[in-house]
Amino acid sequence: MAKRKRTKTEAVIDRHISEGRGQGRGYEYKPWLLVQDVASQGLASRIKGWKTNRVHHLLSNLELNYFYILEWSPIICDIREQYPLLPLEETLAIAEKNGIPHPKDPKTQDPMVMTTDFLITVRQKIGVIEQVRTLKLAKDLQSERTLQKLEIERQYWQSRDINWGIVTEHEIPERLARNIDWVHPFFSIEDCSSISESEIRRITTALTLRVVEEHDSLASIAADCDDQLGFKPGIGLSVARHLIANRWWLVDMNKSINPSEPLVLLANPLVQLHQKLGGVG
């Protein structure tokens, strides 16, 4: 009997699995889809995560904004994006049972592996649980075809007793996302400058004293600190963003942070400042 010719989809699945895609946790996880695999019309992003210390592949601005919310949440301990719904036979069976056309590769017309936008590990008092969230623009939920594909995904996760839900742009606080976007690259101070731990302490002390006691704009205070302490322009503002990202400076993240305006701190950090700075670097 002649051996059946493998489809292109089967070859792609085997290759992705051999590469470790859709496998692992935390730093070791590899998304099933990478930015370079998908035509995203310039909306895709590659960004190093705070929680996982790896590069995340986000395929839309909506995914990016939700990713920021997950990064900021203290109860989220792992984020796995572009997670595959395998085995393929399972989603094919769900589609057939419900009379729904299964997604196909537009070029080969072979059935394609479906993916979930985010598989999230959530810390709770009793341990950790996993949740799944799919990102869709609200207007896209008016599409019957979109709803059909979501139903396949919903039933897939229901069979695994994992909470699944849809998130639209209306559930993502825009100001919070924008603020996190502003501070996100400065979570690790090593990524934004080569200043030493002792220099960080000097800048932090000077910045904090002035932010607490004065009403000048954050940008002005930071620039003055650079000048007075002998650092190149921009270092002070980078440290300020680092302090916000690490919650050493507590601010209302649901209000827009504008460097050209004074920064309002929710608590005076001077008392605990030096204790916290012991872990910098």
Structure description:
With 281 residues, the chain is of the alpha+beta class. The protein folds into two domains: 8-172, 3-Layer(aba) Sandwich (Trna Endonuclease, Chain: A, domain 1), CATH 3.40.1350.10; 176-277, Arc Repressor Mutant, subunit A (Orthogonal Bundle), CATH 1.10.10. It is built from nine helices and six strands. The chain has helices spanning 8-18, 61-72, 88-98, 144-158, 174-183, 197-213, 218-229, 235-245, 270-277, and strands at 45-48, 55-58, 76-84, 115-124, 127-135, 163-167. The strands form two sheets. It has a four-stranded mixed β-sheet, sandwiched between helices. β5 (127-135), α4 (144-158) and β6 (163-167) form a beta-alpha-beta unit. α3 (88-98) crosses α4. It is elongated. The termini are far apart.
**CATH architecture of the largest domain, please?**
3-Layer(aba) Sandwich
What would you call the quaternary organization?
single chain
What is the helix fraction of residues, given as a range?
25-40%
Kindly provide the name of the CATH class of the largest domain.
Alpha Beta
- On the 0 to 100 scale, the average pLDDT is 91
Q: Tell me, what's the shape?
A: elongated
- How many structurally independent domains? 2
The low-confidence parts are none
Sketch the major β-sheet: 4 strands, mixed
Compute the separation of the termini in Å. 65 Å
Number of helices: 9
